[in-house]
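Subject: Sanity check before I submit

Could someone independently write out the structure tokens for this chain? I want to compare against mine line by line before I put it in a report. The sequence has 188 residues.
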Amino acid sequence: MSPSKVRRPQIVVGEKAGFCMGVRRAMELVLEAVRHAEDIKVYGPLVHNPQVIELLRLRGVECERDKDKIRDGTVVLRSHGVPFEVEQEFRARGLNILDATCPKVKRVQRLARKHAQDGRTVLIFGDPDHAEVKAILSYAKGRAKVVQKPEELETLSIDGTPALLAQTTQDRKRFGELAELLKRRYPG
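---
Independent answer below. Compare away.
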């Protein structure tokens, strides 16, 4: 093939490339705070992205995984949320709190609290080791269980009417399958 007939590869960038709205919002909040405050610490990584963590470090924002080491200044609540008790502890210490929790995650936390208060067993479809799921669990005050696979419903003991929630990054199709199984098992 002659050089003039060589096809040049076409590069296509997906329209959905980049950060989700929750991560964009968290970044904007922290970068704005850096302009007006000193001594800013994020409790845990703000997002799951090492480049972002490094960018924030270069701007003077520390990532602190030990809540007991955050004694003063501004504490940022990570985009995946933090356990309810941790946030309350920060408030009791009189820290300035910048809540960078994704609004979608915050909504799931509120739903978990409401359903638990209503006496339901809250089922959370997600990864039990993920920070978001750990935070959601804390809002249900001991009335929640984590489910990773539909098969787990067969052996799960559920008190009362279940309420199904999900880690915000879970697959919608699998969530739908789980919801259908629950409807069959707990009709009405």
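---
OP: Matches mine. For the report I'm noting this point. The helical segments are 21-36, 50-58, 84-92, 103-117, 131-139, 172-185.
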